[in-house]
Amino acid sequence: MKKLLLATAILVCLSAAPALAQDADPEQDKLWAMDLKQLLTITVASKRSEEISDAPSVVNVLTRNEIRASGARTLMEALERMPGVFGQHNAHFGEHSIGIRGDSPTSGNYHTLILLNGRPVREGVSGSIDFIPLRTLPLSIVERVEVIRGPGSVLYGSNAYSGVVNVITQKAQEKLESQASISYGSFNSRGTEYYAGSAGEDYNVSSAFLLRESDGFKVSGNDIAGAFGSDKRADTNANFVLNADYKGFTLNVMKGYLAQDQIQVPNAFPFQDSWFKQRMIDLGYTHNISDDWTLKINGAHTGWKQRYTQIVRLDGNDWLGELSLDGKLSKNVNLMAGGTYQRLIGDDLLNVLNWDSTRLGAYAQMDYTPIGRLKLVAGVQFNDSEGAKGDFSPRVGATMQFNENWGGKLLYGEAFRSPYPTEQFINAPGLVVGDPDLIPEKVSTIDAQITYRNTSYFGALTLFDSHHENTIGTLFDINGINYINGSDIDALGLTLEGEATINAHWKIRGSYSYQESEGATGVQDVFATPNWIAKAGFTYTGWDGISLDVFDRYVGSSSTHAVTASTNPNPDSYHLLTINLIFEVNHFIPFIPEGVDFSIYGFNLLDEKISGSQPPSPALVNAIQSRSGRAVYVKVAMKF
């Protein structure tokens, strides 16, 4: 019955669409088509604006309007709607990371790099803890999100391994503009969010602040010894984001805080307090050397603090400097080249983890358009991590627009992830031991994509084949968890996606992703993630200021070879159904000023029990509920 719910809703929508199209406003249709054309310009693939059909990557875009309609409360919830993206969650951290193409070998964002306006947000302790942007970033400041499925290290360096997420903040359009919202919902969840922006002749400033608290949903289960327990996963989230431009200078700031109750190691109740703090400051300057050449200089600092009970404390600092040059060598040839200097410094309370390491990088990418809409791309990244031999990651590819509607891409790219301090320098015998001689893990990927696109319809079929080398993983023995360079892994899969804009009111979208992986010893499904995910939904907007969004993710069961020690049932397949209903209050209560919205958002409305395992060692593996059951939230938002 559950499996038929979404299909029924989609069929109802499709059957109603032709009649509704007769009432569509031609001017609204025109504006909607213009909006779709704007979606074709992205920046994440080549660090410059280009049409999405010409970008040398497999790219999807999520717009501000789509985020608003969805009702998503976090960046992670918004990203889960995109093709090939899987929300990672486990018993220890809850919702903690995203995996792209099923590539998530451990409990962290090791293989996906998150950017804020093109600048990396990775922390310098493990390079994988992205709780802050994924769960606390205020979505009111987000203009769009660009996602690369596949390698991106040639331009972005370490961690741009299986995917890149670029969050682009909106630019203010007026001298002064603002928006505020308050929300309340299940589990005594309450929150507030505020956005403010200002624009002038020489400057543009946008900022947003979020504060959200919850008593948490109840989690019950057996610990690793089989003893039953339960507790609530309460949390507090706060985040401030600022983007400012002034006469060539840019400033990006993010300062976030997340406190949550976490299950004890090894998966024992009751929960214990923990908190995480992250700050990111990036200052840049752009100088136009000529009409064709631009020089960019960026300096950034990312700080990280982590506390788990009174014992575990990690403090890290990541300093990054980057110089890049972008321009035209001729009418048909573009060049992007640059270099990076990175220094990681940090320690912990118990003095088992201290580090000070330096990394250097250099990159170049050239594209050539010999005829019509054929573009050829070639690039390379050189990376030199302290203690490891320098290495190269190349990229080559071709994009072709066959005619006005049909296009294709054939791409080959390599990417790498350098080991981080927690993997190299931690030294707690009996618990966890690092290896200072770890070398970067690498992946090589072939992508083939065919697309069809016009102002009303979009469809794409993407195939990929990846080979992983020197994968950084763990081995469990009498010394506890040992970080090692493991064996090779082969992975392949496909994504089929489509979107239909029936008219200015109705939009339908869906995707199906499948992947499988095999280790060098023949072990199947090495990544403890679902082999397949199907997503589908529709959005209606327009009638008397009402917006309705219905979206379902059907997630297949995860591989079970990693959870043999579980004393609870292994993670099973599930539906994650969300519905968001927005009312523009002025349409119903005339004396209320325009710009006031009231929304009702339902999460996991089928009340599925969603569990996650805790890799990577047998001492930590156990499947316990990691996301809430049915929840409903109401929000009032007002523009000033």
Number of helices: 7
Structural class: mainly beta
* Shape by Cα distribution: globular
DSSP helix fraction: under 10%
Averaged pLDDT, please? 86
How far apart the termini lie comes to 45 Å
Beta strand %:
over 45%
Please provide the count of β strands: 39
Q: Tell me about the biggest sheet?
A: 22 strands, antiparallel, barrel
Radius of gyration over all CA atoms, rounded: 24 Å
Task: Describe it.
This protein is 9% helix and 56% strand. A hairpin with a 3-residue loop joins strand 16 and strand 17 (268-288). It has seven helices and 39 strands. The strands form seven sheets. The chain has a 22-stranded antiparallel barrel. Strands 3-8-9-6-7 form a five-stranded mixed β-sheet. A four-stranded mixed β-sheet has the order 25-26-30-29, with no helix packed on it. It is globular, with a radius of gyration of 24 Å. It starts with a helix and ends with a strand. Residues 1-38 and 615-620 have low confidence and may be disordered. It is mainly beta.
Short structural description:
This protein is 9% helix and 56% strand. It is built from 7 helices and 39 strands.
List keywords for this structure.
mainly beta; 640 residues; 9% helix; five-stranded mixed sheet; globular; 22-stranded antiparallel β-barrel; 7 helices
Q: What topology does this entry show?
A:
Blueprint: H1 2-21, H2 26-38, E1 41-42, E2 50-51, E3 58-63, H3 64-70, H4 75-79, E4 85-90, E5 94-100, E6 112-116, E7 119-120, H5 131-136, E8 142-149, H6 153-156, E9 163-169, E10 177-185, E11 189-199, E12 203-214, E13 218-222, E14 228-232, E15 235-246, E16 249-264, E17 268-288, E18 293-308, E19 312-330, E20 333-348, E21 355-368, E22 374-385, E23 391-401, E24 406-417, H7 421-424, E25 427-428, E26 432-433, E27 441-453, E28 457-469, E29 472-477, E30 480-485, E31 489-501, E32 506-519, E33 532-541, E34 546-555, E35 574-584, E36 596-603, E37 611-612, E38 624-625, E39 631-639
Parallel strand pairs: 6-9, 26-30
Antiparallel strand pairs: 1-2, 3-8, 4-5, 6-7, 8-9, 10-11, 10-39, 11-12, 12-15, 13-14, 15-16, 16-17, 17-18, 18-19, 19-20, 20-21, 21-22, 22-23, 23-24, 24-27, 25-26, 27-28, 28-31, 29-30, 31-32, 32-33, 33-34, 34-35, 35-36, 36-39, 37-38
